[in-house]
Input
Amino acid sequence: MNSETTISTAILKYKEELPRKVTLVAVSKTKPNEAIMEAYNAGQRVFGENKIQDMVAKWEVLPKDIEWHMIGHVQRNKVKYMAPFVSLIHGVDSLKLLKEIDKQANKNNRIINCLLQVHIAQESTKFGFDHSEIRALMESDELSGLSNIVIQGLMGMATFTHDQEQVRAEFESLNNLFTALKDTPETPNFKPHILSMGMSGDYQLAIDCGSNMVRIGSSIFGARNYS
Ligand SMILES: *Cc1c(COP(=O)(O)O)cnc(C)c1O
Output
């Protein structure tokens, strides 16, 4: 099989296999536009990138009905480049960043949808809030003043390990936080209903643990070559 049929076959397989409530984010980082178009032609419309410059370059030339998700770590000074079009920012990990997103969204006359990244892994390198910081943020007056963002839910990445029990425990802890937040009253800019967790290697476990948005790259597009 050439890569073309591989990509579209994978998309069709996921569309069939994933429960209806689960959104597939096809993670196209490092992959060329041709690969994205193969997935697009198989019906995929939601793509995830982890570098703002790359996402902007792809957005400029690819079909405008693609929904672009920023799944990587976001530097505040680059928010302005994606503010005109980004459809969901998964990796929001500070109030400062949220304020910058709000400011740039306002300049573009838009509302920008965000997920708060929660630190669930044991590795210290993964970004994110811890549970108590999320609660503090929710209760802060500063959040209620941000009228051009809507927090749509939470995102997390499990530890990179073969220990399935550990991964499950991390996903469950995130789902517990998500469930608790869903039970609190919504505010205009806090409407938690998306739980983004699970990648190529652990998405089934993530769905078992309550995920409704999976971010899948290598098992659709093949292994990545980082140069
Ligand atoms: C790269 C990446 C993915 C996709 O990983 P695969 O293992 O290739 O499916 C998912 N989420 C984030 C945040 C990523 O950076």
The CA atoms of residues 52 and 212 lie 24 Å apart. The first strand starts at residue 23 and ends at 27.
